[in-house]
Amino acid sequence: MLPFSYAELADYRCRVFEMYSHVRVSTQNPEVRWRRFRSDQDSSFKTHPQTSLNPEQVADFTSLRYYPYNPAHRLTHPVEPLSEREAIQINLQDDCPTRLMAFERISFGIDNQKVSPTLFWIMGYGGGIFLPFKDLTNLNETYPGGRFLLDTIKGADLGWEGDKLVIDFNFAFNPSCAYNTRWHCPLPPPENHLSVSFRAGEMRYA
Fold first, then answer.
1. Does residue 206 fall inside a structural domain?
2. Is the pTM of this model over 0.90?
3. CB atoms closer than 10 angstroms to residue 186
4. 80-89, 117-126, 144-153, range with greatest mean pLDDT
């Protein structure tokens, strides 16, 4: 096995930042931006040496599975500061403990229900917004451990429209641990276990 390459990982991170940058700045309609994002993502999964897939998976890979684009799952919302900010610690195998600060939330309605997922700040140098979540699709359609929507420290950032955060569940993605046991990921805390179904974004990896 070749030595791990941080230079390759840095290049992969740059590609992810570029993919999300196009989503934020493009003047094309959201679905067109999403389709380009998917194409770029599939290309990285297939060809980049820092893909989340192992060599056997790469050999068989054609594309990630997504729900059809649903404009109803693209939302813009002001954030609501929490009166109390609490930090939680997540211990990851083969990695340092990760501390997350619950700092704000967003509230909106879906399927005649109100949901209020919490936004976390990744504590440490640089930091970043982190929005992991579970929903009812995890039972049989999406990765059982949950999905991520925002992870700005790694470039997964859909931006803002004025003072409103862009929350587009069509961009929900699987953590790396959804693809094989090589990876270990922080999973959504209980406050982001949502009793609704977001049939948008990435589905379970086949």
1. no
2. yes
3. 22
4. 144-153
Q: Is 39 in contact with 13 (CB distance < 8 Å)?
A: no
Largest CA distance in the chain: 52
Neighbouring residues of 47: CB distance < 8 A, sequence distance ≥ 6? none
- Tell me how long the chain is: 206
Q: How many domains does the chain have?
A: 1
C-beta of residue 174 within 8 angstroms of C-beta of residue 134: no
pLDDT band at 1 (very low <50, low <70, confident <90, very high): very low
Task: Decide if 199 is inside a domain.
Answer: no
Tell me the per-residue pLDDT of 55-73, one tens digit each, with 9 for 90 and over: 999 999 999 999 999 999 9
Is residue 151 one of the residues assigned to a domain? yes
Q: Establish if 35 belongs to a structural domain.
A: yes
The amino acid that residue 120 corresponds to is F
